[in-house]
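Title: [Solved] RNA polymerase sigma factor SigM 3D structure

Original question kept below for reference.
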Amino acid sequence: MTPPPPGVGPTDPRSDAELVAAHVAGDPDAFGEVVRRHRDRLWAVALRTTGDREEAADAVQDALVSALRAADRFRGDSAVTTWLHRIVVNACLDRARRRAVRPTRPLEEAGPDDGGRPTALAVVADRAPSVETRLDVTAALARLPEAQRVALVLVDMYDHPIAEVAAMLGVAEGTIKSRCSRGRTALAELLDGGGNP
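Solution (posted by the thread starter after getting help):
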C-alpha cells in the first residue's frame, strides 16, 4: 500500500510549524491539517470567551480567515497553537466591541421540542453530575466581565503562561494577574450561590 502524500490523510507527520511553512510555500492541504488538529480547542476557547455559540462560530471563522491570510507573518516565536489562540481571542474581542456599539437582536425562541427555551441556551438534558458542574461553570463564566472571563479561560483552562496571555491581549502581566484574581473570586461566589460578580 502506498502512503498518502504529505498533507493528505489524518496522520501527517509534519509539525504545526512545518505545516504553516508548507502552506506559505503553496501546499494547498497544509493549512487544512493545522485547522483539523486544533479546531476543537479553538472552538472551545471562542465559546468560553464569548459565551454564545453563534458568536463563537463567527469568531472562529473570522480567526481562521485571518490566520490563513497572515500565515506568512508567523515567525515561530511561539507555538502555532498559541498564535492561533491569540487570533481567536482577538476575533472574539473584536466581535464584542462591534456588538457594544451596535444594538443586538433578541434571541429567537426555540421550537416546542426544546421546551420553549432560547436556542442559544438550549442544552441536551444530561443528569451526570460532571455535566451539570460544567454547565454551572460555563454559566458562571458567562456572567463575568469579559476581561476577567478571557484571562481565566486562557490562564486557568488552557494553561497559557501569564506573560504569554499579557502579550496576546496587549496588557501588562500585573493586569492579567489582577483579572484572574478578581475573576476567580467572582466565579467562586457565583458557584456558591452568591450575587452578581
